[in-house]
Amino acid sequence: MPRTLDPDLRRALAARIRYYNEMGIYDFYRRPVSARTEDVGAPIVVDEQEIALSINTESGEEMSPRKSTAVAVPVAIEGDENIFEAIALKPEQSVSDPVKALKIIREDLGDCTRCVLHKQGRKQIVFGVGNPTAELMFVGEGPGADEDEKGEPFVGRAGQLLNNMIKAMGIEREQVYIANIVKCRPPGNRQPERDECATCSPFLMRQIAVVKPKVIVALGATAAKTLLAMNASMMQLRGRFYDFKPAGVRSNDPDWDGCKLAVTYHPAFLLRDPRQKGEAWKDLRMVMKELGMKAPKQNA
Ligand code: SF4
pLDDT-based confidence at 4, cuts 50/70/90? Predict the structure, then answer.
């Protein structure tokens, strides 16, 4: 006999899942527990476990397992199969215009106080900038002093270098979309903490799902590790593509099921160690090949 969830329990589950999402937890796994009626209302169990995540690379190599948090939920409730998918729908997903959809995400972010960075000297939230339908997206770590001042990512010295890198690819900054893992300036330009990245990045995931790029370039280790949810050195992370899907959200475009992700050095690092610029250029050439772009003559 098919059973449906009690409306109160359904609301409680929805609230619990929103709570986990706010904490940066998006992966929910059904654990086969008893389907008896009295078990359905049992407390939800949260436990840490290793979820082996196969990341398809060009070489077909399997990457390290991803640490994830699994949430066990009641199962075998006919008629409620789509409850979690329905809950995961974001307000912007009913909007086809990407400009409007990004505006909805920005409004949802509001005057955000979700992590401690809101009270550590930020002047403003730095949301993201660029072409809302860009094929190429750059994701950095977080705003610095210049970005905090102007409210736009990558506008300081590192931004100038990023602009030059984009130009070297034969395109303009306005053609790409640029954002950061955290949207508020960490004090003293320190690296954002893991919990800050986990709290803020769901908004970035939603931006990615709206822009639907073909390729994302993660600038630096913090961006790469957060997006890929894996811990590895830059040497291990660079030089290959990863299949990437924004965690916790689905695009409203059935034809977009994620994109490629490449990792390169953060421009701020390249300013400190210009010898690595050649390596970064190799990464960008790999991206250009994927996108079918040709370098301008002077860089060819
Ligand atoms: Fe909110 Fe992100 Fe700023 Fe933290 S860094 S306060 S989550 S906008």
Answer: low
* Rounded CA separation 107/110 (Å): 5
pLDDT of residue 48: 32
**How much is the pTM?**
0.73
**Mutate-to-test residue for ligand 1 from 23, 115, 127, 203, highest number of ligand atoms within 8 A of CB:** 115
Give the SS3 label for residue 167: helix
Residue 227 has, within 13 A of its CA and on its CB side, a CA count of 36
Tokens of 218: 């993660």
Worst-scoring range by mean pLDDT, 24-28, 69-73, 212-216, 283-287? 69-73
Alpha-carbon distance values, 138 to 2, 187, 218 (Å): 47, 23, 6
Greatest mean pLDDT among 62-71, 267-276, 288-297: 267-276
Residues lining ligand 1, Cβ inside 6 A: 109, 112-115, 117-118, 125, 182-184, 196, 199-200
In whole angstroms, give the CA distance from residue 154 to residue 164. 12
